[in-house]
Amino acid sequence: MMRWPRQVAAGLMLTLLLVGLPLALVRLVGWPLPRRWPDQEQLASWIAEPLTERTLAAAFAVAAWLFWLLLVAAVVADLVVRLRRTVRWLRRVPVPTPLQATATGLVGATMLTAASADLAPSATTAPPPPTGAPAGEDSERPPPAPAAPAGVGLPDGGWLPYALAVQVVSAAALVWFRRRRDYIPNTSHTKNDREGDLTPLPATVAAVQAALDPTDPGDSQDQPRQPALDVEVIGLGDLPTGLLHLTGPGATDAGRGLLIAAALAGHDGPHTLVTTTADLATLLDTDPSSAGAWKDTGALRIVDAVHNAFSVLEEREADSCRQADELAERSLILLTQTSVTSGTVVDCLARAALPGSSWTVVVIGEPPAVGHAWQLAADGTTTDGRRLCVLGGAAFRDLLTLARQAYPTTSDARRPAPPTTGTPPAAGTSRLRLQVLGRLEISCDNAPLVVRRSAAWQVLVLLAVHPDGVPSERMAGMIWPHHRPSVTATRLYTTISDLRGTLRAATGSGVIARDGDLYRLDPDHIGVDLWHLRATLQAAARAATPTARQQALRAIIGRPPEPLAAGRTWPWLAAAREALRRQIIDAHTNLAGNCDPQTALVLLQQAIDVDPLNEDLHRRTAQALVDLGQHTAIPTLIDSYADHLASVGLTMSDDLRESFTRQASSGVA
Length: 669
Prior knowledge:
The chain is an alpha/beta fold. A hairpin with a 5-residue loop joins strand 9 and strand 10.
C-alpha cells in the first residue's frame, strides 16, 4: 500500500488544527488577549476563590491557545529545515559531476555528448537523417522522450530503479571522458605502449545504456517501451534508522543493489555505506582473499572486519558535524551478514537509537528478532508494494567495476595498446558505397538505398569497423545487450536476412559473406569510407621516407573525418570512436614533431579541436607557446581546458594548473 493516502490524511488533519482550532476558539471563548488588565477587586476575588467555572473555562482556553501556538512553531521550524535542505540541494545541482548533477541531465550529456563531441567538434547541430533511415530517426530534432519507466530490467532478471540506471549511464560516460583525458598521443608510428584502455565496458553497463538510449526507436516489431509504473522505489535515503532485517528470496540481491547505489553515489554524496570484505565476498560469490582487492568506491567503504566499521562510521559522522547542519541529510549505514549479537553491531544499534541519529544497520538473511523486517520477493518487491534494486552476482560485479573506473581513488595506470581492428581491405571500384563517417548512408551507383531496420544499420557499421568479421553471437550481444540471447539470436537472423535481400536486390550479388559463424562485408562488392581512412593511416605508418609519411598525414589532417556513425549512441560505438579519434590525434602530433615551431603550434591546436579533453595535448601546446615566447596566451589555454573538463564532470589537478601558471609567468617548462 502506498504512503500517499496517509500523507494526504495527515495534511488535512494539520490544516484542520492550524485553521479550524483558532476559528473555533475565537467563536467560543473569544480572542486570547484581554481587552484590559484585571483590577485589584478582580484579583482579590480570584485569590479568594480561584477554581470557579469561569476561571476553569479561561484556563482551558489559554491551554488550547498555547497548544495552537506550539503547533504553529513546530510547523514553522519544520518548514525552515526543509527550506534550508532545498536551498542546499539546489546549490549542489549545477555542480558538473555526475554525482552531484541532476541525473536526467546527465543522461543527455551521456547520450548526446558522446555522439557530437567527437572528431568534428565544430558541428553544433545533429546531422540530418541518413538516406533510407526510418522516418524520424536521427533527425535534427531528437524524438520525443517516452515517459520514464520505474526501472530497467536486466537480462539476468535483475532490476535497477530509473534514477540508478541514469547514474550507470552517467558513470559510463565519465569513464570514457577519463580515458580521453589520460591518453598520451604517439609521436611516432611505432607501437604506442602508453595508449589508453579501449576495453569495452562490462555487459551489464551496455544493457543499461541500450535500455535508456533515447535515440534508437528500435525496429517496428519491437515491443514498445514500458510506461511509467506507480511503484515506490526505496533508496539509501529511505531506509529506516535502527536495525533493518532483509529476508526472503530477494534479500541478498537487494543487498547488492544497496552497495551499488552507494558506490555510484560519489565521494561527497549524502550517504555512507560500510561493509566488510567477507560480506563483499559473499555478494560477489568469491573468496574473501579476492574480495580484499576491491577498494573504497564512491560512498562505499570496505573494511577488513566488522569491528572496524564503527570507527569508520564515527569518523564520517564527525565530518558531517563539521559541515554546518549537514548531518540531518546523511544516512550512515552498516551492511553486514554478521549476527546482531556481535559487539560492533550492538554498538551501532545503540548509536542508532539516539535521538536524531541517522544510523541504519542492515542485516541480510538473519531471522528478525527486533527492529524493522522487510520480506523481499525475488524481484525486490516488499510486502507493502515498494521495491528495491536487485542485482545478480555477475551484474553486481560489472557495476562495481564500472564504479571503480568512473570514480577511482587513485589514478589508474595506463594499460597496453588496444586490440587491432583488422587490416582494412584495399580500395576498390564497387558499385555499392557505405558511408559510416558522419551521417550513415548506403548507395548503389550513387542512388541511395532504403534500410528498413534500425538494427541493420548497426550490422553494417559493426562489419565496417571490424573488416575481418564478427561472430554472430558477439554481434547479437553488442546490438541487443539488454535482451536475452535466446531472443537476440532470432532477431539477428531476421535482420541480416532482410538486409541481405535489400543489398542483393540492388547489386545482384552477395555483400554480407558468412564463413561458418563469422559475418563480414565482402570488399569485392562494397566500398567503405572508414576503410579508405584506415588505409591512408597505414600508408603513413609504412612510408619509406619522412616526406612520404608527411604527405600521407597531411592528407588526413587537411580534411579531418567526421564522427563514426554521427548521431548514434549505441553502447559499443564508444571504443571504436575513441580508437579513431586517437589515430587522428597521433597524426597531428607525429606531424607536429617534424615541423617548425609555429606550424607545430597550429597542428597541436587542431589536435585539441579534435579532443579538447586530452591533458597531454594541452601540455604540449603550452610548451609550444613558451618556445614561441607567447606566454600571455597560456592563461586562455588554461581557462578553456578547465571549462571543457568541468563540462563533463572532471577537474584539472593542482599540479597541472601550477605548471601552466609557472609557464605563463616565467616561460620555464
